[in-house]
Amino acid sequence: MAPVNAALRCANFEERRDRAMALFAEKGFGQVSMRELAAHVGLTAGSLYHHFPSKQDLLYDLIEELYEELQATLEQGRRARAQGKPVLPCLIGAHWQLQAERPMQFRLAERDFCCLSAEQQARLGALRERYEAGLLRLIAPQTRRAGETLAATGHVLATLLNQLPGMLRARALSEAEGLSLMENLVQGGIERTLG
């Protein structure tokens, strides 16, 4: 019976996390009080701290999880390369899918990053830089760019891959149209910038 209880606790925790994320995404992290957050996730204010040490820690966990998922998209690109398949369409498809599965986390990562402590921002910044560098190694392994130019290019490329799916869905483009447009935009930018 213990495994069932553990599974139930895990499911309850995930459900509460998802409710908190939805509230943050809807209202904005800074506009949500601890009391409102507790009521929204179905806990008393006092027991909220047992589940989530602080609002900032919860936000940090949600954004960190997104960067872990973004790292996983790079693994899909590596597998495509190992199988002799084109890497860029694979990465674009993986980002399209991730944006469909986690739109609220993308919104939080862009909008509410500034609400985190300096230490949390630095840790997430390092995760993002690692993701961006990995992305560049996959897409443009032969580039001659270096230093800040290369870092800026990685940042812009990652931003395109992370933001375009939501923008294109808002324009009611089909998945096929969206993926094709993303591939053309990203490929064109890569050829002109890193070629």
Automatic annotation (TrEMBL):
Which Pfam families does the UniProt record give?
TetR_N
> Domain HTH tetR-type, which positions?
10-70
Give the annotated DNA-binding region, as residue ranges.
Answer: 33-52
PROSITE patterns assigned: HTH_TETR_1, HTH_TETR_2
Indicate yes or no for the key word Nucleotide-binding: no
The protein's UniProt keywords, in alphabetical order, are: DNA-binding
User: What is the name attached to this protein's record?
Assistant: TetR/AcrR family transcriptional regulator
Upper taxonomic lineage: Bacteria, Pseudomonadati, Pseudomonadota, Gammaproteobacteria, Pseudomonadales
